[in-house]
Amino acid sequence: MANLKTKRQNANVDKIAFITSHPTENGWRSHQTFTDFFEGAKAHAFSRGYALEAFWLKEPGMTPARFSRMLYTRNIHGVLIAPLPRTMGHLSLDWDKFAASTIGHTLRRPDISRAVHNHYRSMVLALRNLRRLGYRRIGYLMEDNTDVRTFHTWLAAYLVYQHTLPPQDRLGVFQFHYNIAKDDIQKWLKSERPDAIVAQYNEVLPLLLNADVSIPDQIGFASLNTGWKQDDPAGINQHQGRTGEAAVDLIIGQLNRNERGIPAYPRLLLEPGSWVNGPTVRRVEPGAQRALLPE
């Protein structure tokens, strides 16, 4: 650890760029997940002797070549690519000049080192905790764009879990695009008869309530991205700040080893989440035999 930088509080502190590419300069700040990534990364960078500063790639008149020159002339050698606003995106920077990492799966090209929430493990954790509460018929409401952004890992874990169940106990996934039609969700509920539902984020809850679903009296609900407020739904706290920390560590490691450019073997760091109880679940009487949950 001798070559790790100590904390410095002067104006010449080395900087790491937090690069965003939303349509507007501060559009990313309206998303709690993004700001948690940034604040976690910023605090961790400071503790390691660096300053994290946000830069907007879509500045009017900006080109990738000009952007790369601007960073390099400012003596910025580390770049953290924020999650892109669209899925399966790519960025064209002068990568050979920088130590780089990204957060999440949205940057597909180039393939650089990345820190990601362990979505697969978090689905397993949610299913296990719902079963401990007595729920047996656990359905999954999946927004298709978010499924792509998470590299289908939540879906993969859920389908593995379903595979462990007897065929008559398996539930079909309810897939939707941004919004849920009341008639569609009611048909699915009647067909699949879930006693609990897992969804990708908290905003699904009001859509269920609008479909006249009583939670938790009728059906339990768990979100895979929750835990900011005391009255948030039960589910998984992703601890996004820790994912931001991990992305910074990837960059600092490259800087300390004098590594630049696109790596031949990019590293992937998976950060765990934790289960949080909430008002959307309750203990119910056990029903069918416990299924084997995937590790």
Walkthrough of the structure:
The chain is an alpha/beta fold and 295 residues long. It folds into two domains: 14-112 and 239-272, Rossmann fold; 119-237, Response regulator (Rossmann fold, 3-Layer(aba) Sandwich). It is built from eight helices and 14 strands. The protein has helices at 32-47, 64-73, 119-132, 144-149, 153-163, 182-192, 204-210, 240-256, and strands spanning 14-20, 50-56, 78-81, 89-90, 99-103, 107-109, 114-117, 138-143, 174-176, 196-199, 220-223, 234-237, 268-271, 274-276. A six-stranded parallel sheet has the order 2-1-3-5-7-13, covered by helices on one side. The longest helix has 17 residues, at 240-256. The chain is elongated.
Key structural traits:
2 domains, disordered C terminus, 8 helices, 295 residues, Rossmann fold, 14 strands, elongated, six-stranded mixed sheet
Give unreliable regions as ranges: 1-10, 288-295
Ends apart, CA distance between termini: 34 Å
Give the proportion of residues in helices: 25-40%
What is the number of independent domains?
A: 2
What is the radius of gyration computed over CA atoms, rounded to a whole number of angstroms?
A: 21 Å
Average pLDDT reading: 92
Beta strand count = 14
Q: Please give the CATH architecture of the largest domain.
A: 3-Layer(aba) Sandwich
Number of helices: 8
Relevant CATH superfamily of the largest domain: Response regulator
**Envelope shape:** elongated
By CATH reckoning, the class of the largest domain would read Alpha Beta
Class by alpha and beta content: alpha/beta
